[in-house]
Amino acid sequence: MHFQATTPLLLSLLATLFLTTAAQPVKSAYPEDPAYPETPTYPKDPTYPETPAYPKDPTYPETPTYPKDPTYPFFLPPSFWQDPTHHHPLRLSSSDSLTACLCDQLVFSLKMYSSTDSTHELHRPLDGVNPEDRKDAPLGPEGIRWTLASGASTETQTYYVALDDGCFFFLQVAYANFGFGPNVQLSYRYYDPKNPSISDFRSANLSASKFKLSEDNRSFHMNEVSSSTKDGHNFSVLLSFKEKAQFTLTAETEAFRLGKGRTTFGVGEDASYIAHDWVLQSRSEGIITLKDRSTRSLNGTATLVHAIQRGRPYALATKWRFAVAYGKRLTCNMISFQTSEKWGSQWVGQSGIAIDGKMLGATDQVFGEPDGEEEDVVSGYSIPTGQTYWCEGILSDGRPCKVKFHAPMKQLVERIDLLAQLPWMLRKVIQTFVTRPFLYQWWETVKATITLGDEVIEEDIQLLQEASFMR
Ligand SMILES: *[C@@H]1O[C@H](CO)[C@@H](O)[C@H](O)[C@H]1NC(C)=O
Ligand SMILES: *[C@@H]1O[C@H](CO)[C@@H](O)[C@H](O)[C@H]1NC(C)=O
Ligand SMILES: *[C@@H]1O[C@H](CO)[C@@H](O)[C@H](O)[C@H]1NC(C)=O
Ligand SMILES: *[C@@H]1O[C@H](CO)[C@@H](O)[C@H](O)[C@H]1NC(C)=O
């Protein structure tokens, strides 16, 4: 085995690390599924409708002149304008260890003395955004679009669905380009907490040459999976792979972006960045046919996250926390990542909150506090033994808003070794010298407390959590 020859393969794999479930589950930790992966000759289902050319829906409303809503609420965390690091991008000296105890004065003097060193400059989504511009946070007529950014990048569209029957479905399409020919990683999972043996998971590597974007860059089509949208808010998704699924997402809150939508690492054209757009709350309707040939409903509440990571994932962020909560009244997601040491090991977060199907706003004040940590012997990472999540901000009417919940992290859906597909030797080499990416997913019912001014709402939520580690 020549390391040289496998390098492109390795890099294209690494390209899919961020928020992806690129590889197979770690076998040892889970009961063997005898049905998996022996489905090479999946029989064609004659009753399944063929939909080669996605039919045009003449009743689908055109939304060319999307009206701007000047009253659209938004958050302005009070700390935002007081915190000087928001005004002055934090510059780090070459000594990364300084960053942990930076006080305002130090930030200022580092800025003064390192003005020619722009390479370690981190810009958060709200840096330099004035309050008026925050009203533009809803994407409006733009909607969510693919960028297929030049250079090394990974762009993912992930659909999370909390199903009405308590199950969970997720589908992710990751377009990864590291200059060795792009590829598309398709992953999906159906999870039934009452019957965890029904935890259909599949991940496939597809050639990106078949990935076709629509002219407006909103929809994409591949034979195996396609997503079609007229407005970048409402989506029709078709999975036509070994398992089949078809679902539509009707946006209940419109597509949203926090501030500039991206955290930029460094300056200039070639700067790396991590960007997110999302539709926080949609109604999902559809069906899926599982590996056991049973058909299940995909009716539920969905969240769509469109993420772009330009640059090498492990060089930008080494830890990710992701939570999305679905209650009778609340839908809330929290995404945060910790930058690599080079970028100061800083947590960067964003969150959107909707109550009763109405977007309250988005904030960068997102926090997570583990109860404790325990080493996972399989991955070697310290995994939280429970975690409290909260996010807060000020509503445009001046009321403070806070969402908080505690996750026991007992019901692990999956631990995924993102390098599991590589040969053992190569895997060990990468794990030792480059990165050891693992992703964990939990699906649980917990209690959330929502504070809106004087009003306190408590409710049960279904909670999806992901934690990923790369170092
Ligand atoms: C994924 O597919 C692409 C294109 O088909 C190929 O070049 C690449 O080597 C594949 N990667 C893996 C990990 O199989
Ligand atoms: C679509 O994306 C391409 C390149 O990514 C860009 O050149 C083009 O202008 C975009 N089209 C629209 C309608 O945004
Ligand atoms: C999404 O579709 C629904 C139902 O067709 C429509 O009422 C709504 O305006 C659409 N949303 C956007 C943001 O276009
Ligand atoms: C899903 O929702 C649609 C529309 O409300 C309904 O027609 C269908 O029966 C539902 N499916 C299931 C399995 O509940």
UniProtKB/TrEMBL annotation:
The keyword Cytoplasm applies. One of its GO terms (biological process) is response to oxidative stress. One of its GO terms (cellular component) is cytoplasm. Residues 29-63 are annotated as: Disordered. It is found in: Cytoplasm. Pfam families: Svf1, Svf1_C. Keywords: Cytoplasm, Signal. The keyword Signal applies. Residues 154-309 form the Svf1-like N-terminal domain. InterPro entries: Ceramide-binding_SVF1, Svf1-like_C, Svf1-like_N. Residues 1-23 form the signal peptide. Residues 312-470 form the Svf1-like C-terminal domain. It comes from the Eukaryota. Its main location: cytoplasm. Belongs to the SVF1 family. This is Svf1-like-domain-containing protein. It comes from Piptocephalis cylindrospora.
